[in-house]
Amino acid sequence: MTKTIDAMDEFEKLLEESFAKPYTVADIVEGTVIKKDQDGYLISIRGAKTEAYLPLKEIPEGSDNLEVGDIKEFYVLKEENDEEGMLLSLKRIAFAQAWAQLNDAKIQGDTILAKVVSIVKGGVLVDVADLKGFIPSSQLRTGTPFDGLVDQKIEVKVLEADPKKNKLILSQRQAVAEQRDQVVDNILSTLEEGQIVKGEVVRIADFGAFVDINGIDGLLPISEISWSRIKHPSDVISLGETIEVKIIKIDSELKRISLSLKRMGEDPWQQIEGQFQEGQVIKGTVNKVTGFGAFINIFPGVEALLPVSEMAEENVNPFNKYKAGDSVEVLIKKFTPQEHRIALSIKDINKDA
């Protein structure tokens, strides 16, 4: 009789183990409180091979004490193994729910709000429902983090939400692109060429900058930033800055806007008409030296070319003769401001002398 009972017990044990489920970290499991000790509670989890344990430190402060027989949902902190049962948490149920919502947002393609908390190498850290997320620089609208982003709430898309690796990767760029597609036609219909608008500088590149105009990005080419020669757009404007610009072109088919900052002021080429004439000797400053000549600033925003052939009677190396910042006396050999062209000479000054 004893052998029969032992065999039945063994059979029941094997049967229960056959239904055992290998719960993993971050799973939500339902369990029953079966015992309390000094440091926590023993929890019976359906499908687990052994009792799980809930430490007191993993119970939210201010919550009611658990009673034997209570049935609750728990977060798996540590998987069970051959030596011990699962380690559980009640504190992290809210985190688990947040992860689940973020995963749903990823699947559905929903846009969510995130608060930028700090700038780190390669991007920014954000807070989403008390979870820490990361936006790589490549997924920022600006392409580059800047101090003005900190404490801002921005709309983002979820690229990756993995609670087991505690990995949350987000994209502001995708959220902005989706918004742009939704509103671009309506916004374009309210704009016209020649109009003066305010916008925020949201991205700076070598070739220019992108300015947010009522929710869509307009291109401000480097050639339209200043009448004077500049090396980089950041010499004049900065990320996050609000500026006034003029709309110089609207391409409704391609849904693009071209902007100008320099045309907010008077064209210096128009200002110099009547102030200079051919044959006049003036002073200027070297802005740039090239293999074919030097560009000379003769008026704020106006550059004129001094070709190599006009530097001296003999052949010269322009890089050995001039450098940026040099003050020079030149003769205006050809003056056509309406074409934005002025040709200079030094050798002809010497001829006249």
Can I get a quick summary?
The protein is α+β, with helices and mostly antiparallel strands.
Query: Could you state the CATH homologous superfamily of the largest domain?
Result: Nucleic acid-binding proteins
N-to-C terminal Cα separation, in Å?
Answer: 133 Å
Tell me the strand percentage band. 35-45%
Number of helices: 6
Helix content: 10-25%
What is the architecture of the largest domain at the second tier of CATH?
Answer: Beta Barrel
Order of strands, main sheet, comes to: 3-2-1-4-5
Number of strands: 20
Largest sheet: 5 strands, antiparallel
Task: Give the overall shape, derived from the CA principal axes.
Answer: elongated
Tally the structural domains. 4
Summarize the SSE layout with pairings:
Layout: H1 2-18, E1 28-36, E2 40-45, E3 52-55, E4 71-78, E5 87-89, H2 93-108, E6 111-120, E7 123-128, E8 131-136, E9 153-162, E10 167-171, H3 172-188, E11 196-205, E12 208-213, E13 216-221, E14 242-251, E15 256-260, H4 268-271, E16 281-290, E17 293-299, E18 302-307, H5 318-321, E19 327-336, E20 341-345, H6 347-352
Antiparallel strand pairs: 1-2, 1-4, 2-3, 4-5, 6-7, 6-9, 7-8, 9-10, 11-12, 11-14, 12-13, 14-15, 16-17, 16-19, 17-18, 19-20
